[in-house]
Amino acid sequence: MEETGYKVVAVVLFKEREVARFATREQAEWQAAKLNEWSDRNPRGYVQYLVRPLAEPRREKT
């Protein structure tokens, strides 16, 4: 069974770490924006917070 929803990930260089999961994209984007503001005020290296879908979309075979 596939999960639906979105996750917020912290990206540092070539690594990703999941921070949180949300039911809607709007919630995830709001949290990512909030975390990006916080990281700008409290820099500890280069960290970018991004929104990703939980499940990759399937490609139909033709």
Give short descriptive properties of this protein.
single chain; 62 residues; alpha+beta; three-stranded antiparallel beta sheet; 34% strand; globular
Task: From the alpha carbons, calculate the radius of gyration and give it in angstroms.
Answer: 14 Å
Query: Structural class, from secondary structure content?
Result: alpha+beta
Proportion of residues in extended strands: 25-35%
Count the strands?
Answer: 3
Order of helices and strands: EEHE
Largest sheet: 3 strands, antiparallel
Contiguous low-pLDDT stretches (5 residues minimum) are none
Q: What's the total helix number? A: 1
* Overall shape: globular
Measured distance between first and last alpha carbons? 23 Å
How much helical structure, as a percent, in the residues?
Answer: 25-40%
Q: Order of strands across the biggest sheet?
A: 2-1-3
Average pLDDT works out at 84
